[in-house]
Amino acid sequence: MGTDLKTIMSKASFTVDGSPVDASSIIPNPATLSLQDDQSVTFLYKGKAYGFKFSEGKYFTAVFLSDPHIGQNDHDGTSVADMQKYVEKIVNMGKESGAIFGFDALPGYVPTCDIAFSTGDMDADNSKSHNDFKSAHAGFDEAGIPFISMCGNHDLVPDYWTGENPKKGLTYGIGNEGGMNSNKLSINLITEYRNNLSKYGITDVSLITDGTKHTQFNPYSFTFNGVRFYVGQTYWFQKPYKDPSLFSSATYYAPDGVISALENFVSNHSTEPSVWMQHYPFLAGSDCDRWWLDQNDVGKYIKTSNASDYGTHDDVAVYTEASAKAVAKKKKDKLAEIIGKTRNPVHFSGHTHQFSVNTYNGIKDYTTAASGYAASKGAAYIVLMKGNKGVVEVKQVLFLSDFMSGVTDRKMDLLPDDANAVAVKLQESLSHLGTDVTAQSKALESAGNEADVTGAVQSMEKAFDSYIQQQGGKDVDVTKLLGENTDFETQQDNANSEYTGIYPQAGWNSYVESFSNAGNKLYIKLQQSDVKGSSQSSKSLYLRAKWQDRTGKVQIMKQCALPAGIYKLKYYASCVGNPTQNLNYMVLDGKKQMLTVPAASAPELQETTFTLDHPSVINLSFGFTGGKGGTENDVRIDDITLTYQGSKIAPNTDMTSLIQNVGFTEGTTSRPVQGSGGVVQIPNHWDFQYTYDGWNDTKLLDGSFNAWASTIKRAELSQKVNLPNGAYLLTADVKTDMNPNASTIALYGVGGNGNVGRSEEVGKGNGGFNSYSCYFDVTDNTATIGIRSDKAYYQIKNIKLTYVGESADEQTANSYLRQDYYWKGRNAQEFDATGEKYAKARNVVVYPQVKNQLISAASIDQFSNTSNKIVNGICKKLEITDQEKFVSSKDFVAEEAVFDRVFKVGQKSTVCLPFGPSTEKGKFYRLSKESGSILIFDEVSSPEGNTPYIYVASEEGTLHASQANVKATPETMNSTSTESGFHLVGVYQTTEVNNIYGFSVDGELLKASYATMNPFRSFIQSPVDVSGAKVWKASFDGEMTGIEGIVSDGAMLVDVLNLNGILLKKQVKRQEALDVLEPGIYLLRDGNQCFKVKK
């Protein structure tokens, strides 16, 4: 423990097995190590390994109890005798005769009680003495364990008693009667516990008060082992009061002073890890909010004398839960805000008598069950804490007197996975195998530095290679590397004295956590069984749990080291029920790889293949957590074998056998699904995720899996497979009647690197099955393979998995690019495919869902069916679709650029493009200036990109350019402002605009207070409201245009009428309105407005 591990280690003295030694004789030298917080190190001394975990903050365990209600016949009360037994169990926790627990966050740590808390409701209402409570918890003080209690709502009287007895609670009373005296007794008791902290060296106790002489409930704060604790009472913002007298009632005050004091205190201690507590939870129960307003069961309360957001000063006589919510929320929000200013805060509470975990405004609140609650007698949280962090892990437990809560048997030390651990464990494993490692053992004993250890390991690898060659070079049985008793035939140890079904096993560490009383202890087992796993075995290992009051744990584990190579692990396994947690796994290079244990009545053969690139420590675990209540969980394990397959797998090796139920021969119909109708059958060993919308039909048929549903939204079939590292090809035959541009179906594979390989989208093709494939890399011996469909149904069969080699290069890059484009790119305006991940991809087929998409590609042939590819800043051909959004985040050169809008001869059209178009088919004009009431447009000889113009075509056709410089899309595309503030503005996406001028098909200048502009158009932005603006005209080459009442883009829909009001055309595009009509005058109607046009 400390704040600077390097300094502490440099000044420390060292002993090994009780004898002092020089630090320089230990590898690595602990006096010179630069250690990190929570770093694990294996030290080597004369060939023996010693594992240590270093921490800058001390780990310790706190126990949280609540609501004992000592001596109370109702409210789940606990007797003094029962509570004394619970306390005794807590005091003995972690000791030889006590309960043994463990924390997942700190394996190997056996928790003992370092400090204990009780979060209120100590004994009976209006108690005249707290002696029974003190007697019930006296065991903590006797054991030298700090114990802190606080008040709850049953310890401090309410403003009023219950609805049946609606008298004021805080009364003067005579002698030892009355609410005022009851409160004083409770406050005196918690003050006594607070003062006792000094006995344990806790001296920095700080009261949080408002500085007045009013009676307060004195919440306080202190530090213990580097963690700051904030101890509230019933709740933090309780009302201070002036005591009543014989002739007057009590006077209540808003808690604003307490709140200010707490805020000031926290501001000076915000960097310390914190644990907060009070009796009331943030969220729990049907009347949670009234608890925070000092309410009784019908909501009566006494107003505070001063107005405050936190003082319930209003005139509501009786609060309901609904009306209390807003007032309580202010207090809750304020407390959560203050708590949130501290480091790593966690909150603990009680009151509801049941375990629960809630989060309020980001603050996690653990509510502790009552000690006497029938469903959780002896209930508590045990909490792993660390001096420089605070709460690390919280665990529910029971301390019932007739419960034995754990059995641990360690046959070996589990070392950290580092070079020294590898050296020592590899020496042990090779010795089990029968390899002569005498010389290497002596080398380790005399090793003086890390280089010597490395040399010894390399020598052991050579000895192993020699052994393998003597056995034929590959497919060699090396089960003995795992150590003894892998077939569970070795005589087991004697049964545990209390748990007669638990037998420690030779060569394995055993870990059991049980919450079963004396009558149910036989229902937890760890023992050899006559149920066979194979014909060669007469016994298997049987792990079982049932009738646990809390989830039990049964686990075995062993550790060894293996040389580099390809290994196949085989074992027989079965499972009954669905355990809460699966503990069947291997740990390779610090990564957990789950092992399959199928649902079966007897063990069935399983296998997994894995790769080690260097000698490594391996942890092997079997077991589960579960068995609560009548739920039975059991696991059987037998005949574990290990085969060395060689240093490398040959390219193009078929690995399909590692996929379980690959031919879809086994299925179950018991799994519930959404929707109704149809057959529901899911293949065993596969995971099926689905979103149905109506009729469903999933079944196995002739070696295929069918996910048939005409309105299916998602159907994903997948399986996790253990594989050697390298590149893989997944192929399958898939059938659908949907096209890729209408739906999505694709095979995929994902290795430990998170990069997903994906096939091309499945299409209906010839109407039958078609073959699809994808490549992916495996980097941590695990992969998930599957097929996913969105908006389409499918059949799949003939799945095949092939090991390609160390890397699939182009094929893998293609799969990754397809995957990422599909999920990230197809709906984006831009997609970047230039990263190293896709560098080798070639001829990838994708299906863009948006027009005008720009793809930054690593090479011109990276994609085979898309345009608008930018490679090293050059785009061969830029094709822009009219009226579709366009965005470019970078500059590039388009060797050829085309805009597909067709312009009619002589028609004034607005336009704005990302490139400067050619002027060979017309003239471009920009807004230049104004003269009187005339807006003057000048011709431009060399139009530029991202600049708005008026275009008049001299020849019908599209716009294009060569060697066009395309600039990144700016936020605005405006012309120079005229004297009055007119701008010509361009847009690349549909835009709602106000107070603008535009041009009709006939070239007339139009005005509108509101309009919608389509992409690649421009408009004249007016500096004033156009509804009352003066009449303007526009000048092009000296030719004037007039004003009309509305603006109309050429794509706007209008009705065409003759001058007699007869409808000639209905809802046609404005630019096509006069097509095929005879020359003359016509009316165009847009909504309620009409205007004349001439053809």
Automatic annotation (TrEMBL):
SUPFAM superfamilies reported in the protein's UniProt record: Metallo-dependent phosphatases (SSF56300)
Alphabetized InterPro entries for the sequence: Metallo-depent_PP-like
Protein name as annotated: Calcineurin-like phosphoesterase domain-containing protein
